[in-house]
Design brief:
The chain is globular. It is 45% helix and 15% strand. It is built from eleven helices and ten strands. The model has no long low-confidence stretch (mean pLDDT 97). The protein has an eight-stranded mixed beta sheet with strand order 3-2-1-4-5-6-7-8. The protein has a two-stranded antiparallel ribbon with strand order 9-10. The chain binds acetoacetyl-coenzyme A.
């Protein structure tokens, strides 16, 4: 099947990045948000990223114009019905995702392939809301989407092998390196990353080291681009808590259990960089200061 037109549902941090890489790869891209303001906010973010690429000489003005010309923001879900592939990047809540895909299933032709960018729910439980589980995969991107090279391509026991190969090829066309992952909670990356991040919080709770010293240790001792607390603030503490709860529910293992400090911080509204506070205070964003926890 030739993929020409791609639909992206959700134009937040992940959805806007996904829409950007689809348009950059040459696909006609329709991106849907629930309000005109959110569409505008998402498209503005993409515009800013493309402008930065022009400034750095990675794109010409003409190429930027072509990419923007392939992108269309919409609010009505009906606008997605002509798409060959639909990538969902909405709120990480099962009922919302199932409701969306049930509607899309009724709207879209039989050939349309559905994909979810969920990081922690199983693809099987989302796909079960449709009559096409054989044309359903996970396409899990990483933040920031335009920069991170990986895409996890997730198959369920119901995914058609031909559809799966097409989606691996689609991931490569987006300029990403696809890896094959089965539909186990957290796939490959979060299965390993989430216990590491939660253990960093437990180490802090137990007084093993300070926020800055633990971050510095993992950056300079292991060559990680960000220490665990900088990464937690970047991913979002609310998102991490939510993912850990889903994974704990799935595996019932302590390594996925949320440490009390994480719960307290989320209750206090300290969601990380996006809320101005997390393990660091971002009052001066260029110079984050560790919080006194
Ligand atoms: N959007 C677009 N481009 C961005 C960007 C963004 N949000 N942030 C940074 N960049 C670009 C910069 O423009 C720069 O580009 P050039 O090299 O072409 O100049 C490049 O990325 C490097 O940026 P910086 O020099 O400013 O900073 P850096 O070297 O520290 O890189 C980083 C920033 C890529 C985010 C790096 O710190 C990193 O790799 N961090 C780890 C990120 C990570 O682990 N992500 C996965 C999170 S988990 C997840 O997403 C999945 C989940 O399910 C929870």
């Amino acid at each position: 099947m030739a993929i020409r037109k791609v639909g992206v549902v959700g134009c937040g941090l992940m959805g806007s990045g996904i829409a950007q890489v689809c348009a950059q790869a040459g696909f006609q891209t329709v991106v849907r948000e629930i309000s005109g303001e959110l569409v505008e906010k998402g498209l503005k973010g993409i515009e800013k990223n493309l402008d930065r690429m022009v400034e750095k000489g990675a794109l010409t003005e003409a190429e930027k114009g072509e990419i923007s010309g392939r992108l269309r923001g919409v609010t009505a879900v009906e606008e997605l019905k002509g798409c060959d592939v639909i990538l969902e990047a909405i709120i990480e809540q099962l009922p919302a995702k199932r409701e969306l895909f049930a509607v899309l299933d009724g709207l879209c032709p039989a050939h349309t392939i559905f994909a979810s960018n969920t990081s922690s729910l199983t693809i099987t439980e989302i796909a079960a809301a449709t009559k096409r589980p054989q044309r359903f995969v996970g396409l899990h991107f990483f933040n920031p989407v335009p920069v991170m090279k990986l895409i996890e391509v997730v198959r369920t026991i119901a995914t058609d092998p031909g559809v799966y190969e097409e989606m691996l090829a689609f991931g490569a066309k987006l300029g990403k390196t696809p890896v094959r992952a089965n539909d186990g909670g957290g796939f490959i990356v979060n299965r390993l990353l989430v216990p590491y991040l939660l253990d960093a919080i437990r180490a802090l709770e137990e007084g093993v080291g300070s926020v800055v010293d633990i971050d510095t240790s993992m950056k300079l001792g292991c060559g990680y681009p960000m220490g665990p607390f900088t990464l937690l603030d970047f991913v979002g503490l609310d998102t991490t808590l939510y993912i850990s709860q889903i994974m704990f529910d799935e595996f019932k293992e302590k390594r996925f259990a949320a440490p009390p400090l994480l719960k307290r911080m989320v209750l206090a509204g300290w969601h990380g960089k996006k809320s101005g506070r997390g393990f660091y205070d971002y009052a001066d964003p260029a110079n984050p200061k560790p919080m006194n926890l």
